[in-house]
Structure formats: C-alpha cells, structure tokens
Amino acid sequence: MSHSYLDMINDYRDLYRLKLEEKNRLCGEIRQMIIGVATENGGHLASSLGAVELVVALLSVFDPMKDKIVFDVGHQAYAYKILTGRKDRFHTLRQWGGISGFPKREESPYDHFDTGHAGTSISAAIGYAKARDLLHQSHNVIAVVGDASISNGMSLEALNQIEELKTKVIIVLNDNKMSINFPIGGLAKHLSHLSTNPSYRKMKDALRSACKNLPLGGSLIEESLKKLKYQIKTALQPINMFEALGINYWGPFNGHNLEELEEVFKLAKAFDESVLIHVITKKGKGYAPAEENPTKYHGVSPRRPRPDAEIVSWSKACAECVEKIAEKDNRVVCLTAAMEEGCGLSRFKKRFPDRFFDVGIAEEHMLTYAAGLAAGGMRPVTFIYSTFLQRAGDQLYHDIAMQKLPVVISLDRSGLVGEDGETHQGLLDIPWFKSVPGLIIASPRDVADMEFMFSNLIKNCDMPAIVRYPKGDAPKRLARDVDAPCAPWLKAEVLRHGREVLLIGHGGVISMLIESCNKIADIYNIDPTLVDLRFLKPLDLETLNKLFVDHSLVIMAEESYAIGGIGEQLLGFAQRVNKHIRWEHMAVPDLYVPHGAKDEQLRYVGICCDEVVKKVSEYLETAPR
Amino acid sequence: MSHSYLDMINDYRDLYRLKLEEKNRLCGEIRQMIIGVATENGGHLASSLGAVELVVALLSVFDPMKDKIVFDVGHQAYAYKILTGRKDRFHTLRQWGGISGFPKREESPYDHFDTGHAGTSISAAIGYAKARDLLHQSHNVIAVVGDASISNGMSLEALNQIEELKTKVIIVLNDNKMSINFPIGGLAKHLSHLSTNPSYRKMKDALRSACKNLPLGGSLIEESLKKLKYQIKTALQPINMFEALGINYWGPFNGHNLEELEEVFKLAKAFDESVLIHVITKKGKGYAPAEENPTKYHGVSPRRPRPDAEIVSWSKACAECVEKIAEKDNRVVCLTAAMEEGCGLSRFKKRFPDRFFDVGIAEEHMLTYAAGLAAGGMRPVTFIYSTFLQRAGDQLYHDIAMQKLPVVISLDRSGLVGEDGETHQGLLDIPWFKSVPGLIIASPRDVADMEFMFSNLIKNCDMPAIVRYPKGDAPKRLARDVDAPCAPWLKAEVLRHGREVLLIGHGGVISMLIESCNKIADIYNIDPTLVDLRFLKPLDLETLNKLFVDHSLVIMAEESYAIGGIGEQLLGFAQRVNKHIRWEHMAVPDLYVPHGAKDEQLRYVGICCDEVVKKVSEYLETAPR
C-alpha cells in the first residue's frame, strides 16, 4: 500500500472528500485494522467485517452528530467505532479500561443507544423518532439490524408498531443469511425468497435510476419522490411480510457496493415514510478464514497461551454430559437460542439431529416450547447463557416452574464473563431465580458433580431446574478423591473441616476458596472450614446450621450481585442459630461491571484470595480471642 | 325454555348426540351460566362469551382426553371448563378453593397447559406436537389464540418456528378485533385486510364444499386433501403474512356458525400440515351490555357493596397524578401494554392523544421504546402490572437502567392480586428489580406520597425508577397531617416513635401495621415504633440503623416473596448494628398463592394483624425482660 487512507482521516467527516475508489480502499484498510485487533483481543470479527461498506455508506450520508444510528446487538459496529473518533484507541477493544465491544453512550457521543442483547434497535429507534416528532426536531433515525435479530420477538413487536405510530424511521436490515450459526425459521426463508424475487430486483433498478436522476435538493425532489412512492407501492404487489405490516420495503441491495448503498440511503433520507432497506452482506467479508467458517469467527477469543489438551470448557463438558445421557434416554432433547457453537452443541446436533432444536434468538419461545415438550413427555435441556435467560424470566416462572414441568436449564456463562462486559454479565440469575418457587438451582464446582447433577435431574427428579456454570475451563475433579461418589442429592459438601472461620461458596469460586484456606492456614495458623453449597435452591440448612453454631467468622463468596445473592438469604438462617457470627458477603456490588479480562473484573469487585485473607485479618484484629 | 340442554349433559361427550339446533340452544344456555357466574364472582366475561361456539365446535371434533388443546391466556376458556366436568363447580369460579379463572393442569386432566400471561399457546402447542412426533403418538394439538395475543413477540417467535419443525399443529386464531381495548399495530390491520379480501372468502367456499363432499374416512379423503392442498397453495397467492412464514392459512370463518366451525375443524384434523384457522367472533356475544362495551366487560369485578364515591383506586389515582404533571411538562408521555382501562388511562389518552401509546401486549417492546423516547429527550411513564413486568425484566435492566435513562415505571397490581390468582400475583418485582443497579424503587403508602414521588421523579430526578402500588383502593392520606409536607426524598418515615418493638413496612401493608400498633399497645402495653420505608432502593440506612440500635424485635412486613424480599436485605444491616435483634420477616413463603379474595390470600400467607400480634406475643414469652 503506497499510503494509508486510514492514517489520513480523523473521522467520518473526512469521508466527504474521498472519491468512491478511495473509500473502497479505505474499507480494505478498516478490515485489516479490525482483523488485527479482533484476532488479538478477541471480539465479534465476522459480523463487523461484513458491515464495513454499510458503515462507511451510512456515515457518508448521515451525520451521527445529529442523526441517531442504533446498532442492534452491536457486533457490526467496529468500523463505526473506528470512524467516529475511536481509531487510535481501537487497539484497546474489549480490554480493561479500553473501548467496549458494543456501542456505549458513555464512551462516545456518537453511540446513541447501548446494545448487547439482540432485538432492541427497532424499539429504541422508533422511540428516538417519536421523541424527535414530539419535540419538533428533524434529524434522521436509523436502526441497523441483522437477519437473526429481526426474528426476535421484540423486533417483531416493534415492526408491528411502526405503521400505527406515523413516525419515520429507517431500518437497515443487514442480511448475512447467518444468524449466529445459520438462518432460522420462516422469516429467514421469506427473506431469502425476497432476495431472489425478480420483482424486487426490478424495484431496485427503478430506485437506482430514480436516485441518479434526482436533483438532490429543491422542490423537484418532492415530486420525484411522490411518483416514486406510487411506483414503490404498486411494484410491491404481491405484498411481502413487511408490507403486510404496513412498512415500505426496498431491496435487496448489495451490501458491499458502496455506490449502491449511498444512493439508497440518500433516497431513504429524502423519503417521507418509514422504510426497511434490505441489504445483503457476506459475514467475514475480506478475511478468508472467516468467510469460510463464519460461525467459528462469529466471536473469537483473545489470543492466549495454547491450552492444555486435557482442559475442557464448561460448555463442552456440559454438552457432552447431556449427550451421554441422551444416548440412553430418548426422551432427552436439547434446545438452544442461537448458541449451538457457544454452548458446545455441534456434536449433539450431529448425533441427534431430530432431538436438537436451535430456535434462533427467541429465548422466550424456547422456554415455553421446552415446557410444551416436557408436558408432552420429553425431558428437554435448554442451553442458554445466564445473561440471555433474563429475556425469559417470566417463561421460566409462569410456564415451567409454576407447572412443575421437568425442564432443565443448562445455564452457561453465569457470573462474570470477561471481555463482553456490562451487557453480558451473568449476575442476575441467582437474585431473580432463587425466588421462583419449586425450582432447583444447582451450581457444580467440577465436571464430576455437574455430571451427577444432570444425570439425577433427568433420570430421577421430575422437577424444573437450573444447572449454573461459569464461562471458561472446568476442573474435572476439585477437592475430590478419584472414584469417590458425589455428595448426596440436595446436600452441601464440607470440603475441609476446620474451626472458627467458615468459608462458603459454590461453583466457580470454590478453587479460589481452596487457595484462600491454604493461605489462611499458612499466615494465621487457622484451619478454616470450607463448604460447597452445591445447591442454591433448596438450601441444605441442616448442614449449614450445624456449621453456623461453632464458627464465628463466615465469608460467603459468589459470582452474583450481592443484593439478592444467596449470601443475603443465608444470613437470616445463620443469625437464628448464632447471633455472634460476623458475616462477610463477598459478591458483586450494586454496579455494572465493565469489560476486560475476568481476572481484572474479579479484583475490581473484590472476589479474590487477597480479599478473603484481608477479611480474616480484619476479623482477627477486632475479634475477642 | 322448555327444558335445559345443559342440565341434560354431563360433559363434552354428550355433545356427540346433539343435533346442530340443539347445540346452538346449548350455546345460549352456556352463555347464561357464564353471565350469571362472572357478573357475580367477577371474571373475563366478554372473551369467554365470544368463544362459546368455538369451544363447542372444538369439543365436537376433538377429544380432549387425548388431543391437547392449549388456550392462550385462558380468558376464552369458561365454556371449555363447563363442558369438561366442571359445570357443577362453575359457580365457585375465581373464589378461594373454587375453580380457577384460567386453565390449570392441577384442576383438570382436560386442561393441558396452565396459562394466564399472553402469547404462550403456540410455543407450548408446538412443544406438545413435537413431543408427540418423537414419541410416535398420533393425537391432535390445537392452540386457541386471540388476535391480541398473536401479536405478542413470543407468538411471533413461535410462528416463525413452525415451518422448520415439520410438525403439525392447528392454530385457531380467535379474532374478535379487540385486543383488550382495540386492535393494535400492523398485524391487526393485516388481519382485517384478510377478513375482507375476496380471495380468502372464495377459499372458504372451496373449503366448505370440499368438506361437505368428503367421505370422511377411507383413502378417498387423502386424494381429496391432496387436491385441496394444491388448491389452497395456489388460491392463496398473493401470500399473506402467515403464508410468508410458511404456515397454511384458512379463513376467515364465522366463529358463531357452529356448522362452519365443525366442518373446518374436521378438515384441519384430516389435513397433514400445520394450519392457522382464522375465525371471526364478537367479543361479549349474547350479552348486550358486553357487546356494546366489550372493553368495560373484558374483566369484570366481583359484585361488592357500592363503594364510597370518595374512594379512588390506586390505578386511577396514579393515572390522574401523571396527567396533572403532563399538563405542565410536555415531555411527559404515557405508555401501556394493552392496559389502558386497567391502568385508568382513558382520560389521559383523550386529553393527550399524541402523548399516549398503547403498544398492545408487547411489554418487551414497550420498555425499550420508552428507553428510546427517554434517550430522545422525553419523560416516559410506562403503566404496567407487576406480573407483566416479569416479561420485560431484561429490557428494564439492559435498555433502561444500564443506560440510566429516565423512564418511570408505574407498577400497578404489585403484591397479591386476589381472584386472578397464581399467574397474576405481583410477588417478584421486589426480588427481581432490587438487584438492578441504579434503579430507584418507590412504594408509597398513600396518594399524597405517590404524588410527591411521581412529581419528584419526573421533575427533579433524571433516573430510571419504579413506583410500586397494589391493586385496590388508595388511601388519600394515611398517618399524615393535612397539609404536612411529605418526608424528604429517598428517606424512610417514622410514623410512630415507640420502644422495643419496631415494625417496618412499605406500601399497602402500612395500614395493617398501624392497626397492629394499636392492638399491641392495647394488649401488651408496649408502644411500638412504626417506620414506612417509602423507598426500597436505595434504602435509607441512616434512619434504619438508628432504629436498629435500640429495638429488640423487628417485624418487617411486605407483599413480596420472602426469598429476595427487602426484609432479607435489611437483616444484614440490622445484624451489623445490633446482634441481639430478633428478626421476623412477614412475607410470602416459597409457593404459588392460589386465586380467591385478597383477604383470604393475606391470611393464607400470614400477612395480617393477628400474625403481628402473635409474633409480639412469642417474643415476649421468650425474650429476657
């Protein structure tokens, strides 16, 4: 490259003086920057690569200082970040203190709405649009939404609302035919039908020529548009799904053709009604490995030392466990909401294609579908991330737990999740779901216990349940003798019998607590007791109450919000048994934990070995000996 | 009436021997029974009246002993209850110990899925259908869903999934053009377009004649159906929205014509693919007041003594308060999810039509739409029942609170709700939302404080907030001097300064606690202290910690689940200040509270004056004096 356009420009305003060819070369450079940073730091590579021209065209036509651009999910927004003042900080993407992987209003005045979860952009955009109308302002509002997000129920609710509101919003449907894995459902088929239907292609040509001939500005434009509007209305018979909902549909357009995109965006800007612009892009565009395997490159992990071959992720271990159970029990079916790869289910899908359901980004439907399957005699296991289960809390309560239906929720990425940050933390599942009557909540510390829990839940226990596990690597065996059986069903397990100091935890924090025990013994010559709760609902009060009697400091650690955590609940029982207990709850304080490495996050919220030792030290200083 | 058909039959099996004319007369008798009971006990009168022929036709064609019929919401199911073994108990509808107003699996083997919240039936039905396929069974699965429920995001997610699953499910769309108030959105318009489109009417005629000529049984039927299928496919060009999603659409049919309904149900039963049957009914059919004003008769209250004209409901008081604020602040807009009447918003809508939005049964969309409005400079107030906010917990967390957007949620029907029962209790809002960082949660005890809270939230406090209030009557002033200002912002209020016993509460329980104070003073000669928390987040620890120091019994009462309630959280603070406090948390135990009068429910869960007195008595017996 003789010289770099990316070096030459400050931000999107410099796009105005670039020629088409120069912009195309700039797109290539932006891609290289994205590939470089995302393969190093981890990130949503493939989606952002697919949307580079889309972003450049948007920023060539709209002004994000006044126009509001809302990216759905935000996976597509890396080029947008680079071109709106964050080029020089882009190498800090997803790192502690660096820029976020998602749009964030606090990060930039150009980020108009925080996103992370799917399906929010159309609702937010029509909110922005209606506020503009009511406040007599005149800027543009654009939602950029992928084909996977648009089939989420919330998007569909918002689409249903548009005509009635009589406001103008521009929806750019970035259709990469992918969802996170592959297209799901009738809407995806309908989109692919629209993509190839000649009547729409004809429309596109009409639009293009109209656009070219438009004297942009002046009153001629209005007349041309009026005619065009009529043409659009008539050309679009037979109606498509969007037209059925009263929304103008234009497309499909080539999402990598800058000229075409800029033309249609200009037209949409001048048009006086809401319009959905259907744009076809290629996920992973410009990076061969991602183009070939866009699912693998949907989200890439930060570059880290090559892991031990022996180490397995929690996701994979759980999926394999359920697969083993499914071999012998053909009532077992697996469900996921667009997380086949993330939840390690590809092999299950291959082995049991009839018993695997990826419902797309439709968490609400997934849980009630699972309830129906269970009512019909199956044993569904639904794989979902903790953060996304927040989308289906009511279905868990109202459709599964209230009817005592035996659905097992395999809850991935619970607790702190690292680089995805605020929007993706799994800190609410305990506060929210511990209050759901009749639900079992299990939190295994290792693969051995996880296997025992799944197996018992599916084989012996006809109850609704959650098995909660963190992101990352799963210890195969932790504080457990080889071949020793797991502790009894619904019982806590005392991993270490000591005195005075009682450490309580569950799941991912147990290894930190084991380390803490050793340090406390070394430094203070106190041998603490360590108990793994294993089950968060129901709580094993029999075991705990005995321990509360003869310990004077309790440190309860968990990767959950402190408010509503299990620690809050346990204190009530402890206090009845032993009024003199000093109670320390080590959990996430009442704030949103930013993105960065998980280690940084744990230190930030104070869930770490050093803090445990510090609390023991404080106790020893003040406690009567 | 010479003799009663309803008296003559035991259940739906007796329908088989009735002639068409006799069934029609039976429908009239069922309507009379529904009107009699629902106007006495309260209930969802208008919807159930509209669906009598629909239910009779379903039960004439399908056998609910093996076929699975899933009613969405369940408002339409009264005739179904009467005809499936619950005729003699129907007079106990919605009463404590009586039959539920909604389908309940525990109540009857004919109720195949518990409902109450909208939009669940299609998901549940396809779950049942897929389970049937996997278990090689052969029964029919039918979802009966209203035009309001089908536009809920969850229904749309499920519709999107049907084609892909290659299973057969029959969806009966009961279109009464009503939603709870009136039709919302593009889909409603589309349905009305389909209702009048001649090509569909032609289809209907084709179906009817085909149906009549079908020799039901034998192999001829298959050939006829094959032909018919082709006819259907071709007749339905241009495609409609359902066809766009790959679902066969038949209709519209007259939902009060038994003969037509039975014909089409028989055909759907024999058809080998999923089909959506569009049926037009009249809400309130057969009861003149309800036909004329179906919104008013959507849900009717139990017959009770005529209330004092001075008494106002919480819903009405809140709506009027926001209306007053909106007069002076044109940034204020009101949103509701199909609860205009229920939340008392009709007058607001009339006065400020441009600033009122009923989004239909789309709680998720509503909250993020409100977030967009707030981001765009408005001050949205969203009116929603506590139980339905469970549907949009993630939107509250992810789209409103995380971005610190000034959306106020006016949370109606929080706490126990009486006759609607399990599915509609508002017991989760505290456990779920107290853990959302940055949210303010207010719980006023009377209208005066409610007005102060709304006014401050909208005028002075740019924060996301919930104002939580119960179902029923609002005291205008409670433990408050006329013209005395409200307690300071975010502060708890000590209503009575006493000693030894500290009663803590908020919202609806305060009047019960005042009564308890008087009883305790009378019986034990102890003057308790009474504090109204007013704000559940943030908690006023300054005031509380002072009180914890010199009281030895705390009774904290709240209409919330105990697990996750504020009482659980407060104990941690109390214990740090005073280890000798005896702590009694009077809240809802870990179970689902059944339907019945609210008084019965309060006694059942032990939130009442007698329990407070009992706890004081127990304390006095054991405490050192």
From TrEMBL, chains A, B:
<comment type="similarity">
    <text>Belongs to the transketolase family. DXPS subfamily.</text>
</comment>
<feature type="binding site">
    <location>
        <position position="176"/>
    </location>
    <ligand>
        <name>thiamine diphosphate</name>
    </ligand>
</feature>
<dbReference type="InterPro" id="IPR005475">
    <property type="entry name" value="Transketolase-like_Pyr-bd"/>
</dbReference>
<comment type="function">
    <text>Catalyzes the acyloin condensation reaction between C atoms 2 and 3 of pyruvate and glyceraldehyde 3-phosphate to yield 1-deoxy-D-xylulose-5-phosphate (DXP).</text>
</comment>
<dbReference type="Pfam" id="PF02779">
    <property type="entry name" value="Transket_pyr"/>
</dbReference>
<feature type="binding site">
    <location>
        <begin position="116"/>
        <end position="118"/>
    </location>
    <ligand>
        <name>thiamine diphosphate</name>
    </ligand>
</feature>
<feature type="binding site">
    <location>
        <begin position="148"/>
        <end position="149"/>
    </location>
    <ligand>
        <name>thiamine diphosphate</name>
    </ligand>
</feature>
<dbReference type="InterPro" id="IPR005477">
    <property type="entry name" value="Dxylulose-5-P_synthase"/>
</dbReference>
<keyword id="KW-0808">Transferase</keyword>
<comment type="pathway">
    <text>Metabolic intermediate biosynthesis; 1-deoxy-D-xylulose 5-phosphate biosynthesis; 1-deoxy-D-xylulose 5-phosphate from D-glyceraldehyde 3-phosphate and pyruvate: step 1/1.</text>
</comment>
<protein>
    <recommendedName>
        <fullName>1-deoxy-D-xylulose-5-phosphate synthase</fullName>
        <ecNumber>2.2.1.7</ecNumber>
    </recommendedName>
</protein>
<feature type="binding site">
    <location>
        <position position="363"/>
    </location>
    <ligand>
        <name>thiamine diphosphate</name>
    </ligand>
</feature>
<keyword id="KW-0479">Metal-binding</keyword>
<keyword id="KW-0784">Thiamine biosynthesis</keyword>
<feature type="binding site">
    <location>
        <position position="176"/>
    </location>
    <ligand>
        <name>Mg(2+)</name>
    </ligand>
</feature>
<feature type="binding site">
    <location>
        <position position="147"/>
    </location>
    <ligand>
        <name>Mg(2+)</name>
    </ligand>
</feature>
<keyword id="KW-0460">Magnesium</keyword>
<comment type="subunit">
    <text>Homodimer.</text>
</comment>
<keyword id="KW-0414">Isoprene biosynthesis</keyword>
<feature type="binding site">
    <location>
        <position position="287"/>
    </location>
    <ligand>
        <name>thiamine diphosphate</name>
    </ligand>
</feature>
<dbReference type="InterPro" id="IPR033248">
    <property type="entry name" value="Transketolase_C"/>
</dbReference>
<dbReference type="Pfam" id="PF02780">
    <property type="entry name" value="Transketolase_C"/>
</dbReference>
<feature type="domain" description="Transketolase-like pyrimidine-binding">
    <location>
        <begin position="312"/>
        <end position="476"/>
    </location>
</feature>
<dbReference type="InterPro" id="IPR029061">
    <property type="entry name" value="THDP-binding"/>
</dbReference>
<feature type="binding site">
    <location>
        <position position="75"/>
    </location>
    <ligand>
        <name>thiamine diphosphate</name>
    </ligand>
</feature>
<dbReference type="Pfam" id="PF13292">
    <property type="entry name" value="DXP_synthase_N"/>
</dbReference>
<keyword id="KW-0786">Thiamine pyrophosphate</keyword>
<dbReference type="InterPro" id="IPR009014">
    <property type="entry name" value="Transketo_C/PFOR_II"/>
</dbReference>
